[in-house]
Task: structure prediction
Amino acid sequence: MVSSELKCSLCLQMFVKPVTLSCGHTFCKYCLLQFFLRRSLSCGLCSSEFVTKHPFDLKVNVVVNNVCRSLNTKMFLKALKTQAKEMKASNLEQKLLKKYPLHPDSCSEVYSTWYREQIGDQSQMNRLQLLYAKFMQLIEILRPYV
Ligand SMILES: [Zn+2]
Ligand SMILES: [Zn+2]
Result:
C-alpha cells in the first residue's frame, strides 16, 4: 500500500520524479510541467508563486523519488515510461518553451540540468542522438535573437 503522503495531488498516483517547491508541496515533475503550461509558475495546491529560472530548472527530490521507486518498482517504472511517452507525444517541452522562453544567459545552464536528467533516465539512449537533439533545440531557442 502506498502512503497517501507519497501521492501527487495532481495525478493522484504515487510520485514519479517528484519535485518539491519552496512552499514545501511536492508533485510529479511531469504533472507540474503540465500545470505550468495550463496555469502559471505557481503551486498546484496552495497557489503560492515561486521563483525559478525556468520550468526546466526544477530539481527532482532524489530521496522521495528513491522511496517511491523502492516501494513499488514495477508500478514506478511503468508510470515513468508512460509519463515520458506522453510528454513527447504532447510536445510539452516545446509548448513550455513557447510560454516561458529561455533567456539566452541562462539557456545553456538550464539545458544542461534538463538533459543531464534525461540521460540519467535513459542511459541506453545514444548520447550522440541526445546531443544532436539538444543542439537543434538550442538553435530553435536562439533563432529570435540572431
Ligand atoms: Zn503526479
Ligand atoms: Zn504549495
Notes: The chain has one domain: 4-145. The longest strand covers residues 18-20. Residues 35 and 47 are 11 Å apart (CA to CA).
